[in-house]
Automatic annotation (TrEMBL):
<dbReference type="Pfam" id="PF04371">
    <property type="entry name" value="PAD_porph"/>
</dbReference>
<keyword id="KW-0378">Hydrolase</keyword>
<dbReference type="GO" id="GO:0047632">
    <property type="term" value="F:agmatine deiminase activity"/>
</dbReference>
<dbReference type="GO" id="GO:0004668">
    <property type="term" value="F:protein-arginine deiminase activity"/>
</dbReference>
<dbReference type="GO" id="GO:0009446">
    <property type="term" value="P:putrescine biosynthetic process"/>
</dbReference>
<dbReference type="InterPro" id="IPR007466">
    <property type="entry name" value="Peptidyl-Arg-deiminase_porph"/>
</dbReference>
<protein>
    <submittedName>
        <fullName>Agmatine deiminase</fullName>
        <ecNumber>3.5.3.12</ecNumber>
    </submittedName>
</protein>
Length: 334
């Protein structure tokens, strides 16, 4: 699932460039699986349908649906999903623009808008009493969840919930048995209060890929070194240590307008059917990142996607997308 950038969004001044990135992303993903794109209006839908048809994207791998949003970060406003008795269940948590930092009313209403149009086959489970973004949680699919205290326990999300309360709702609603809490790790330019998907990711139930900064002069060095030590101390459910794969540190990416640092990270990769899409930044570290992810995912194609425009709005590849399990969508024509 992707949410197309609108002309009234923060992408307005970069619209042509970010649309090119979106089109590339859709074309690549549809080589492997279906894509649902939510769009602001019918004229955008018709224009995109023509563009994708001309690129050879098959109609049967594409659903273009009108459902306006405030922004494009489907990872955080899209539905989280679990499998219950072999059936997908889509969960609609409340999205508040990362603790009220940005307008989010349309983003928060988007999942219901899709459900009301009959897009979701299993329907939608309303959990709007809890604020939760998809980028804040990373699971191994076997009951273990990895997250950061700075986000999930931030009082700007659920001030009425303490750590025990958060653990309880994660267990009851997501089937989580263990939570691994990171105390350290951040990226300059990040608006999310340190989403885990910018820092460390499960590759399988035994393996975690994480960002490592080897430059002692970099402002991130101490925090990411401390995060690495935490990851080394974590144990799997069977008591064994995790296999850790370090992802390289790109050179500082600076905004061309005001020079502030942008949150470039290779941890924001996207796992799809048969492939892993890797954010790239036209940086010498791109090659090392590709090699590391090839080690982490030896049976999948590793495909770089240029994300230099995406990080201009402080996210990257994984942030733009939300996976949906097979059986989630009703058939929708472009």
């Amino acid at each position: 699932m992707l949410s197309w950038p609108g002309r009234d969004s923060d992408w307005a001044s970069l619209l042509d460039a970010i649309e090119t990135t979106f089109i590339t992303l859709i074309e690549v993903i549809t080589r492997y699986q279906h894509v649902l794109v939510t769009l602001p209006d019918d004229s955008t839908r018709r224009r995109l349908a023509m563009t994708l048809t001309n690129l050879g994207v098959p109609d049967n791998r594409l659903s273009l649906v009108i459902a306006p949003s405030d922004d494009t970060w489907a990872r955080d406003h899209g539905p989280l999903s679990v499998i219950e008795h072999d059936t997908p269940l889509l969960l609609d948590y409340r999205f508040t623009g990362w603790g009220g930092k940005f307008p989010a009313a349309r983003d928060n209403a988007l999942n219901k808008a899709l459900a009301d149009q009959g897009i979701f086959k299993p329907g939608l489970h309303n959990l709007q009493q809890v604020v939760l973004e998809g980028g804040a949680v990373e699971t191994d699919g076997c009951g273990t969840l990895l997250t950061t205290r700075s986000c999930l326990l931030n009082p700007n999300r659920n001030p009425h919930l303490d750590q025990a309360d958060v653990g309880k709702f994660l267990e009851e609603q997501l089937g989580i048995h263990r939570v691994l809490w990171l105390e350290n790790g951040y990226l300059e330019g990040d608006d999310t209060d340190s989403h885990i998907d910018t820092l460390a990711r499960f590759c399988d139930e035994h393996t975690i890929a994480y960002v490592r900064c080897d430059d002692k002069s970099d402002s991130h060095f101490e925090a990411l070194k401390a995060m690495e030590c935490e990851l080394k101390s974590f144990q799997r459910a069977d008591g064994e240590p995790y296999r850790l794969i370090a992802l390289p540190w790109p050179r500082a990416c600076l905004d061309p307008e005001d020079g502030h640092r942008l949150p470039a990270t290779y941890a924001n990769f996207l796992i799809i059917n048969g492939a892993v899409l890797m954010p790239s930044y036209a940086d010498p570290a791109d090659h090392a990142a590709l090699k590391a992810l090839s080690e982490a995912f030896p049976t999948r194609d590793i495909i770089p996607i240029d994300c230099r425009q995406v990080i201009r709005q402080h996210g990257s590849l994984h942030c733009l997308t939300m996976q949906l399990p097979a059986g989630s969508l009703n058939a929708i024509n472009p």
